[in-house]
Amino acid sequence: MALVGGAFSFYFYGVYRGWIRRQQIWIPRFFELESSHCLSIVETKYGQIFGLPNALSGIFILLGYAIILICTSLGYIGPIISLYIGGFIVVISIYLIIGLIQLRVTCRICLLVHFLNASILLIQII
Predict the structure, then answer these.
(1) Which residues cross the membrane (predicted)?
(2) Which of 16, 29, 114, 123 could form an S-S bond across to 93 if both were Cys, CB 3.0 to 4.6 Å?
């Protein structure tokens, strides 16, 4: 799921930068970025947390998180580490959802990635 979230972050950032088209065969139509309204959040105070657009940070964070989850499942990393990282990611997701609400932007792909983050943490807890 973390890799899927990273792929959606890549898509969002690629469309934002103009590197890829909005319509992609691997993106379900429901999640396609149909207007610049969704992309407009990048230019707000909620659009960057670590000095980079959130979608770009998300690519690296979710890729790293996927690697950590794999290492945890193989026993190389203790489960508490991946749990703390997952909690940190969900806290960031909550902040970004609050930003979407305050900006009155419904970004389906953003909400999907935040849902995936929360789902991963929930699976870890269970």
Answers:
(1) 49-70, 76-98
(2) 114
